[in-house]
């Protein structure tokens, strides 16, 4: 029951590391790769604070073993924008007060990113349903929903302008 | 919440998975999406010395639609079900039910095979599969066999699958019947307080066929032959719905939990069953 | 005027001072995943601690065998009470004057109690080792009901045997903690006995939990070379933690540094001192290495900081036309195994004596009995000032029950009993002086906004349709009017472990005209770095964007009592304004010198001092700051800084009017919140965007508590709601869109007139949601039903009223 080599591509960067199979992806990211955006909130896959994008799907990285993730392509909130060039979602969360303590925010934004990939023009109801795997204790969601709808509008406007 | 150590296997074919199962017997378990098993392992309520991850087995994936015959690989996720346009046309009840399972992240990982195979009475797919009269393909060292969903469940977490077998595929015949999956739960991510799947088709102004099954209202999913019988031949009027509901209620045996006591669950079950039947009828 | 001088309004806008919806400065790091929370901290050589916890709610600990655990590679130590005893740390004092076991000493008193602390090289090994510690228990009879506890022969707290008096006076029984009485018992009882109308009701405000998304944790690091202990942790009151740590450990306070990093929500959970903190400190002292302890969600829900658990019995009297004459309240308070309630020392039931609410009630009496049971200790103020949600829930339910008794509209009953605007400052029968309010204006505005009369007509139509069998859905109109009491508090009557509940701000202006301010509080999402800079910007004329706000490091920040009970704005916000005014006073002298006029001949104008009557002659604050450092000014010390320790003369009393419209499926108990209107009056509004965010969040936490969130125990004392499967935290799907509104009635005693707002929506929201449920069933004879109003309990109510045919 030793360690095994786990290969991950995280935010475009390839990593090869030794991990016990039982290690959880969230711990590998946080402890081994120092990617501390995703957080541990509930540990039973209810709260979504640990949400990352794995192979194009939003997953709760507290409920994925390191060994399971071997070979995966992972994007965390750290991979969405840069300090000089924030992702529109990051901008809109700031603009519309879509966060308070910030603990759920990386998971929220990462999930919202995938949601907008799949549904670029969601209704408020679709945003609420699509974000239902992420719990926030501070905001009551109202401004999170607002931020995501605003980001969708911005992204759509940019897309139209490009065409 | 940290799981115990285990040996990890990621076979790339069914044979490889079976080999590990055979070698380690009770000490080995297969894992599909892991969203039922991993929390139990983290709580150390499930001890799994040998964990077989099925994600590498390509033959367990895929949805095939051949006329009315539908075949779904065990590793198909709830998200795949929801996103599959052909399936939504052929058997829309699957999409309706899958959307009521857990939350988006869990649906990306959670699989149909895992949902039907682990025997958790709270899972939604078993009742649904009984309603559809689906068959489960089981592959073991001795070959392949099929078990009807209606014969598969023996008790909570006890099924007709042998420990050394793998549930590989689900097959059923789509009927074009009116459908509904009605579920009451406390919140997103919760199991059903009561849930009911109904498929009903008309034959002229009478009901020609009806299938009613329920989730989390007994230690196994409950398909109610009597409920279907009460509907077939009727016009689907209020009296028939009531008779079918009463028949279905006679087949359930819920237990009290944080969602409420038995008395409440039985009452809500009656409401949910009636609503499922009425909604399925409205689409028949 | 000089053409180059920007218009005054532009200069005001440039400050981003009070009143503007300034975007938050915290958000850059949080949106990029660069927050700095406790579990993000990694120190060289850091070890990990994990607890062995009791599976029993009441048991004797016969033996603890740590041998197998210690034999596991990577395990450094396993601490038990025996190891802590020589240091006198096997027990610790609680905030409520009781003491609490740090690790089980002879027996355990609640499920999840800390029994042993494993220290290992990583958290996986620690978790494995926890499984290997063998504890032999002998189970004892369990008491989870406080009424039974007071009758029982079983002595829960053997350590207190024979003690007939506790921190708050006499104990009536071996499981009794205290009786707290306020008001005039005899007169109140006489008034009620002789009243024209009396309504009585008993209600249970169930046990719940603040459950911030980030659980509690700490990293303790003892530097044996320099003799310094650094404790990082999720502390809502870091300075108090330093003092407590010093008193407990004997390490001099200057050698202890406490750092609260970014905190992922607190809501009261992170006020207390928990065994995990103590054990990580001891483990670090023992091993000489940093030790991290992070609780998991189950541990969080089972062991740290429950809230509520109040059994309240009320009698309210009135004249026939609805004028309230008296209020009597008795509370049986279930405090669990140890009295670890986080209240100011002299208030064992917090500010429960605000229970006369927003009404002019001439006579009142309150008595609270605290009781031990086999449940987790805590008793924190979950998103409210001390026990204020309990008090407001109580009075807002009593008002509804009285309205039924009087056959009167509950909105009208409130209106005729509100404290009138001209009565402020108002002396309440239970001893508080309400600072300011205009309740009638707020109430009328709220009722008009929702078309209250129209709603009642719609509801009447719905009831008629229901009776005709045309619908199975009822409609409830939930009303609440609340008065909060926040900003603890005046040092003369408020302290925590003897520390007066002042707060502080230290401001330092840099030569180039930017600034840093440090406060004794600590943000957990409230946005202090944004809003306190706004207060200061307006006070000193330096743009908020040029002011850094820093909190949470006891080595640099001035002593303060922390953030909880909506006290930051009322107390530290006042200190900030006062420190700013000291800066301004010195700046005035410097400006006068630079402008070569007398001090009295210059006046402050937004971002500068101008010569009176000659506004073209001015010195900006940037000019003044530079001068403070670069030239000798006769009679004035170099530099420009100030500190203020603010002892508030009174609490502040925010208030609000809420209306909830709810549809209820009678057959399934499912509720749907169709509309929610919230009018808040928090006095002067510093940042409307932040205020609205606080309202949305507080309402959602109220919704959760009302509709299902509870810490439930079975008869054996097992926690039935230990994960988020069963402990209800609503998602975006279950939460409505809220409408917010406001009036502004400044606090007369606060330097900027602000009152605090973070907890108002929770305090007002709980009775509002609950009253909506009750209101739906009022036409069918419901007086009261206990929360949480989850599906099955609502169904039970409907069933009990015969609504299921």
Structural notes for this entry:
- The complex is a heterotrimer of chains A (163), B (284) and C (805).
- Chain A has helices spanning 25-32, 66-69, 88-95, 105-118, 124-130, 142-162; strands at 4-10, 13-19, 51-54, 57-60, 73-75.
- By secondary structure, chain A is of the alpha+beta class.
- Chain A folds into two domains: 4-77, Roll (Ubiquitin-like (UB roll)), CATH 3.10.20; 88-162, DNA polymerase, domain 1, CATH 1.10.150.
- In chain A, strands 2-1-5-3-4 form a five-stranded mixed β-sheet, sandwiched between helices.
- In chain A, a hairpin with a 2-residue loop joins strand 3 and strand 4 (57-60).
- Chain A is globular and about 50 Å long.
- The model of chain B has no long low-confidence stretch (mean pLDDT 97).
- The relative contact order of chain B is 0.12.
- The termini of chain B are far apart.
- Chain B has three domains: 7-53, 2-Layer Sandwich (Uridine Diphospho-n-acetylenolpyruvylglucosamine Reductase, domain 2), CATH 3.30.43.10; 58-173, 2-Layer Sandwich (Uridine Diphospho-n-acetylenolpyruvylglucosamine Reductase, domain 3); 181-283, CO dehydrogenase flavoprotein, C-terminal domain (Enolase-like, domain 1).
- In chain C, strand 24 (495-496) and strand 25 form a beta hairpin.
- Chains in contact: A-B, A-C, B-C.
- Chain B: InterPro entries: CO_DH_flav_C (IPR005107), CO_DH_flav_C_dom_sf (IPR036683), Diverse_Substr_Oxidored (IPR051312), FAD-bd_PCMH (IPR016166), FAD-bd_PCMH-like_sf (IPR036318), FAD-bd_PCMH_sub1 (IPR016167), FAD-bd_PCMH_sub2 (IPR016169), Mopterin_DH_FAD-bd (IPR002346).
């Amino acid at each position: 029951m030793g360690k095994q080599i786990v290969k991950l591509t995280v935010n475009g960067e390839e990593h090869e590391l030794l991990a016990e199979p039982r290690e959880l992806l969230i711990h590998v990211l946080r402890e081994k790769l120092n990617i501390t955006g995703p957080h541990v909130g509930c540990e039973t896959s209810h709260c979504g604070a640990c949400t990352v994008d794995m192979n194009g799907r939003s997953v709760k990285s507290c409920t994925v073993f390191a060994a399971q993730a071997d070979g995966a392509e992972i994007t965390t909130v750290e991979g969405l924008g840069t300090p000089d060039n924030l992702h529109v979602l990051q901008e809109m969360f700031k603009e519309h007060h879509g966060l308070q303590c910030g603990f759920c925010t990386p998971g929220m934004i990462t999930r919202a990113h995938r949601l907008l990939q799949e549904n670029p023009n969601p209704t408020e109801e679709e945003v609420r349903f699509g974000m239902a795997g992420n719990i926030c204790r501070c905001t009551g969601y109202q401004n999170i929903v607002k931020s995501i709808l605003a980001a969708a509008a911005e992204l759509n406007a940019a897309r139209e302008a490009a065409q | 919440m940290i799981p115990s150590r285990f040996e990890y296997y990621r076979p790339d074919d069914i044979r490889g998975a079976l080999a590990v199962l055979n070698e380690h017997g009770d000490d080995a378990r297969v894992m599909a999406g892991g969203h039922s098993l991993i929390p139990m392992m983290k709580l150390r309520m499930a001890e799994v010395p040998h964990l077989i991850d099925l994600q590498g087995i390509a033959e367990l994936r895929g949805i095939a639609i051949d006329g009315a015959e539908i075949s779904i690989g065990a590793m198909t996720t709830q998200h795949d079900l929801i996103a599959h346009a052909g399936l939504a046309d052929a058997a829309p009840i699957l999409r309706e039910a899958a959307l009521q399972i857990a939350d988006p992240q869990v649906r990306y990982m959670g699989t149909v095979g895992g949902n039907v195979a682990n025997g958790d009475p709270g899972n939604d797919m078993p009742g649904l599969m009984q309603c559809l009269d689906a068959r489960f393909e089981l592959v073991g060292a001795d070959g392949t066999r099929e078990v009807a969903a209606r014969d598969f469940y023996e008790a909570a977490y006890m099924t007709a699958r042998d420990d050394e077998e793998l549930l590989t595929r689900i097959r059923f015949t789509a009927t074009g019947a009116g459908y509904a999956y009605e579920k009451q739960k406390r919140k997103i991510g919760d199991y059903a307080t009561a849930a009911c799947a109904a498929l009903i088709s008309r034959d002229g102004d009478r009901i020609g066929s009806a299938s009613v099954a329920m989730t989390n209202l007994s230690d196994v999913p409950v398909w109610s032959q009597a409920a279907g019988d009460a509907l077939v031949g009727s016009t689907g009027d209020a009296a028939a719905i009531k008779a079918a509901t009463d028949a279905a209620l006679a087949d359930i045996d819920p237990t009290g939990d944080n969602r409420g006591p038995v008395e409440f669950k039985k009452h809500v079950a009656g409401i949910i069953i009636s609503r499922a039947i009425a909604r399925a009828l409205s689409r028949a | 005027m000089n053409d180059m001088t920007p218009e005054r309004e532009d200069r005001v806008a440039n400050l981003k001072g009070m009143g503007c919806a300034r975007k938050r400065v915290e958000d850059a790091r949080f949106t990029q995943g660069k927050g700095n929370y406790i579990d993000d901290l990694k120190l060289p050589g850091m070890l990990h601690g994990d607890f062995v916890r009791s599976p029993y709610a009441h048991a004797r600990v016969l033996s603890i065998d740590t041998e197998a655990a210690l034999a596991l590679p990577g395990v450094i130590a396993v601490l038990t009470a025996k190891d802590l005893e020589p240091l006198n740390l096997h027990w610790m004092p609680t905030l409520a004057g009781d003491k609490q076991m740090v690790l089980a000493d002879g027996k355990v008193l609640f499920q999840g109690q800390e029994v042993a602390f494993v220290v290992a090289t990583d958290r996986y090994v620690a978790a494995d080792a926890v499984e290997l510690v063998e504890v032999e228990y002998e189970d004892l009879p369990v008491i989870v009901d406080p009424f039974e506890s007071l009758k029982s022969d079983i002595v829960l707290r053997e350590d207190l045997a024979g003690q007939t008096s506790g921190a708050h006076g006499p104990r009536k029984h071996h499981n009794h903690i205290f009786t707290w009485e306020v008001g005039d018992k005899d007169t109140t009882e006489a008034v009620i006995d002789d009243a024209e109308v009396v309504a009585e009701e008993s209600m249970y405000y169930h046990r719940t939990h603040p459950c911030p998304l980030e659980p509690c944790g700490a990293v303790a690091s003892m530097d044996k070379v320099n003799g310094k202990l650094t404790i990082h942790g999720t502390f809502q009151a870091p300075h108090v933690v330093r003092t407590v740590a010093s008193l407990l450990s004997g390490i001099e306070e200057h050698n202890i540094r406490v750092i609260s990093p970014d905190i992922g929500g607190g809501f009261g959970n992170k006020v207390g001192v928990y065994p995990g903190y103590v054990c990580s400190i001891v483990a670090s002292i023992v091993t000489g290495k940093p030790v991290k302890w992070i609780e998991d969600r189950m541990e969080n829900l089972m062991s740290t900081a429950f809230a509520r658990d109040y059994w309240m019995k009320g009698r309210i009297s009135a004249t026939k036309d609805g004028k309230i004459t008296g209020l009597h309240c008795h509370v049986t308070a279930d405090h669990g195994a140890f009295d670890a309630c986080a209240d100011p020392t002299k208030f064992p039931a917090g500010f429960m004596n605000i229970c006369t609410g927003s009404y002019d009630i001439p006579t009142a009496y309150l008595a609270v009995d605290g009781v031990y049971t086999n449940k987790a200790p805590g008793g924190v103020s979950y998103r409210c000032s001390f026990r204020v949600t309990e008090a407001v829930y109580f009075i807002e339910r009593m008002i509804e029950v009285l309205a039924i008794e009087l056959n009167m509209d509950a909105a009208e009953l409130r209106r005729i009993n509100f404290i009138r605007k001209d009565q402020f400052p108002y002396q309440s029968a239970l001893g508080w002086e309400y600072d300011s309010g205009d309740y009638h204006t707020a109430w009328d505005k709220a009722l008009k906004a929702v078309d209250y009369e129209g709603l009642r007509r719609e509801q009447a139509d719905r009831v008629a349709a229901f009776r005709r069998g045309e619908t199975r859905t009822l409609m409830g109109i939930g009303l609440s009017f609340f008065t909060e009491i926040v900003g603890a508090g005046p040092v003369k009557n408020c302290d925590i472990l003897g520390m007066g509940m002042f707060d502080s701000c230290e401001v330092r202006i840099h030569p180039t005209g930017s600034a840093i301010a440090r406060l004794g509080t600590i943000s957990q999402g409230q946005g202090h770095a944004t809003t306190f800079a706004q207060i200061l910007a307006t006070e000193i004329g330096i743009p908020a964007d040029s002011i850094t706000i820093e909190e949470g490091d006891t080595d640099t920040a001035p002593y303060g009592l922390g953030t909880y009970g909506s006290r930051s704005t009322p107390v530290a916000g006042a200190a900030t304004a006062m420190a700013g005014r000291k800066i301004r006073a010195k700046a005035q002298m410097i400006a006068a010198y630079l402008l070569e006029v007398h001090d009295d001949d210059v006046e402050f104008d937004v971002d500068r001092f101008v010569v009176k009557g000659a506004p073209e002659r001015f010195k900006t604050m940037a000019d003044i700051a530079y001068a403070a450092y670069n030239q000798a000014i006769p009679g004035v010390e170099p530099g420009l800084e100030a500190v203020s320790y603010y002892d508030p003369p009174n609490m502040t009393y925010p208030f609000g009017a809420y209306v909830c419209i709810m549809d209820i499926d009678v057959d399934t108990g499912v509720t749907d919140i169709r509309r929610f209107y919230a009018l808040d009056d928090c006095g002067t509004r510093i940042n409307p965007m932040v205020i609205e965010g606080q309202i949305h969040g507080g309402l959602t936490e109220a919704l959760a508590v009302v509709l299902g969130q509870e810490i439930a125990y079975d008869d054996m004392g097992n926690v039935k709601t230990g994960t988020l499967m069963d402990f209800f935290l609503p998602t975006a799907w279950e939460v409505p869109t809220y409408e917010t509104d406001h009036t502004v009635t400044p606090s007369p005693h606060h330097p900027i007139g602000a009152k605090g707002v973070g907890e108002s929506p929770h305090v007002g929201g709980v009775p509002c949601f609950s009253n909506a449920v009750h209101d739906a069933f009022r036409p069918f004879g419901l007086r009261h039903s206990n929360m949480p109003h989850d599906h099955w309990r609502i169904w039970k109510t409907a069933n009990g009223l015969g609504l299921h045919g």
